[in-house]
Amino acid sequence: MSVTELASDRRERREPPVETAARAPAVLARKPGAHVSVDSTADTSRSSRFVPFFLMPVIDGLALVTLILVTGMGWFGAVYAPTVLAILAAEGQHRTRFCLRVSDQVPRIAAAAALPLILLLPWKPVDGAALSALLATCTLISFRGGGCLVLRAVHRRGWWHEPTLIVGTGSPAFDIAQLLDEHPELGLRPRGFLDRGSSGRSGAPMPGPLEELGEVVRRHGISRVLVCSPAISEAELTSLLRACRPLSADVCVVPRLHELGMAVPRGCLDEVWGIPLVPLRHHAHTGAGAKVKRALDLVLGALLCVVAAPLLILLTAAVRVSSGRRVFFHQERVTRSGRSASVVKLRTVAPGAQQNWSVSEQQCTRLGRWLRATHFDELPQLLNVVRGDMSLVGPRPERPHFARRFAGEIPRYADRHRMPGGMTGWAQVHGLHGDTSIRQRARFDNQYIEYWSLWMDAVIVARTLATVLVGSGRFRSSSPGGSR
């Protein structure tokens, strides 16, 4: 069904028509029962998908280089400019917004310009620091303002646009399609609609499973996905986001209760001509983030192996004297993408006890109870970290049999395997180990994955060390059935 036919259908229902230009979309059927309205002049070039990722960093970089050359900052400028760029990137200020109002960005730009000075002044006083921050703020705002004017002009003339797919066929979806058509300066050209089910009217909404999203995004070079259907559940929305992540498509959602100003914090919002949108962030732990995390695991893991070597030698000797058995044992655990890894631990109990899901305090030696309470029995896992089997921080890996069992019983348990298993994790620093709920552990593990950052890893490591040093770790035990 074309957008022109949709407009006729809306007139029959006394709804505002969707204005259409000469580019009338046609219907693309991927398979029986799955259709998506796609612009017949769909752009086959995908270079436009990468422009938004570099536009703002380039503008900010030019602004700071100009500031350094004009003011002659010298060595200070060489440190100051990259720091400001890093802060702006960390705050999400390098994402190209739909709404190009520079006034909304002033507070964050000013904070990014002032923070490096606050950090550097105690170590190296800089003359005119306040003036430097003010000049940096004004320069960044001026360059961004000029860049926005140029970008609007480029969009208005149709020289560059971003192919956009609208998920939903209700009134909000039609309203946004009409606004995008009326305001080309926004730079978003709708390629069509994707939705599930049918309204029951002949040719009204275009039916099609949401599972088609990833394929449609890939085939038509979609760079923006706008979700405007209030009927989409949280689980379906999560699937939408994951389908777009590998394709570098940005997903924005029209929030429910968006008429209420307090419903969503303004700092989290973008907008399309008065209609608020919540941008959904990409996972930081993929791509470059995963490489940085692995590099830190390798460096810190090797360093900790050296530092912990004397303690580990003493512990192995103590275990040998205490139990008279082999000091180490290997156990298969499920880590990233469902792969198995052989995890090394110090022996604390009889080998037969390890066949159960849990270990009771009575099954451990006196030394074993202390090792499990302080988590020192897991020190050999530093070797797993160095080898790449595990990470210092991540969801605690489980044995294959129980991982399969929990995945079948607990929603989203298998989602924990999106990252490598870790020696410690977000669930563990909240006391969720031993006889605690597996469901709650999965919730914390998935929260960690969704909001991962290097700072979050640092917080988890610090809290883990504090637990060990103050001796507040409790014995890790549970019943064989376990708490779900």
Write a brief caption for the model.
It contains 14 helices and twelve strands. The protein is of the alpha/beta class and 484 residues long. It has three domains: 3-42 and 161-280, Rossmann fold, CATH 3.40.50.720; 49-155, no CATH class; 288-470, no CATH class.
Give a quick set of tags describing it:
6-stranded mixed sheet; 14 helices; alpha/beta; Rossmann fold; single chain; 13% strand; 12 strands
Proportion in β-strands: 5-15%
Largest sheet: 6 strands, mixed
Q: From the alpha-carbon coordinates, what is the Rg to the nearest angstrom?
A: 28 Å
Mass-distribution shape: flat
Write the layout of secondary structure elements.
Blueprint: H1 3-12, E1 26-31, E2 34-38, H2 51-71, H3 75-90, H4 106-120, H5 129-156, E3 162-167, H6 171-182, E4 188-194, H7 213-219, E5 224-227, H8 234-244, E6 250-253, E7 270-272, E8 275-280, H9 288-323, E9 328-334, E10 340-346, H10 366-374, H11 381-387, E11 391-393, H12 400-409, E12 422-424, H13 438-450, H14 454-470
